[in-house]
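Researcher: Let's do a round of design. I'm pasting the structure tokens now; please hold your answer until I've finished.
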């Protein structure tokens, strides 16, 4: 067994994939892009583009009072589109639209263990907006990383709370 391992270890591909596997044992990789958050002035005005032009149905509209937004969800493959309409000009999306206008607001990565992912990001020197996860739309556990330490993209970790029960 050791002999086979040592013979394989001479192959560069084996060394690379062994290293990748070793690394992934310690760093929690996101499984997929859970959703892309898009800030819009009005859900009522934006939804028809997704339904009539792209042909995807809105499956949920939900107000997240804590975040001062109303959300509309669409699913395309494994990834969702989350439209965000502000319910308060002083909320995060209200301020974003005031400054930058409508457009991509954040990217959310699905992670298996959000607490661990946050610890790893913090250890890597990333500024966290949320030190601990909180409840977001669709009952997900969510936490944000500050766009100033993620190259200008507001980044969200998202853990399906049902998966860990
Ligand atoms: N993407 C990229 N950059 C952003 C941003 C975004 N979405 N929002 C703000 N910024 C930038 C600002 O333009 C500003 O840049 P400059 O200093 O170059 O002008 C910088 O970040 C800091 O902005 P700020 O005025 O100091 O801080 P804000 O009060 O605007 O807050 C942020 C910014 C990201 C900390 C805040 O919006 C936040 O905590 N967001 C997390 C929560 C959230 O976004 N909730 C809504 C979605 C909820 C959901 O998905 O359900």
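Researcher: That's everything. Go ahead.
Model: Designed sequence:
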């Amino acid at each position: 067994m050791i002999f086979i391992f040592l013979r394989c270890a001479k192959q560069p591909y084996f060394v690379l994939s062994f290293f990748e596997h070793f690394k992934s044992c310690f760093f929690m990789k996101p499984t997929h892009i859970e959703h892309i958050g898009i800030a819009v002035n009005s859900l009522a005005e934006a939804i028809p583009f997704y339904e009539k032009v792209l042909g995807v149905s809105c499956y949920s509209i939900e107000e997240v009072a804590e975040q001062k937004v109303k959300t509309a969800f669409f699913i395309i493959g494994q990834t969702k589109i989350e439209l965000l309409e502000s319910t308060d000009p002083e909320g995060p999306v209200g301020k974003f639209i005031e400054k930058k206008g409508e457009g991509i607001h954040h990217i959310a990565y699905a992670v298996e263990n959000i607490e661990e992912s946050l610890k790893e990001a913090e250890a890597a020197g990333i500024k966290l907006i949320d030190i601990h996860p909180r409840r977001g739309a669709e009952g997900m556990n969510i936490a944000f990383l500050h766009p100033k330490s993620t190259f200008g993209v507001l980044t969200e970790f998202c853990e399906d709370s049902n998966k860990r029960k």
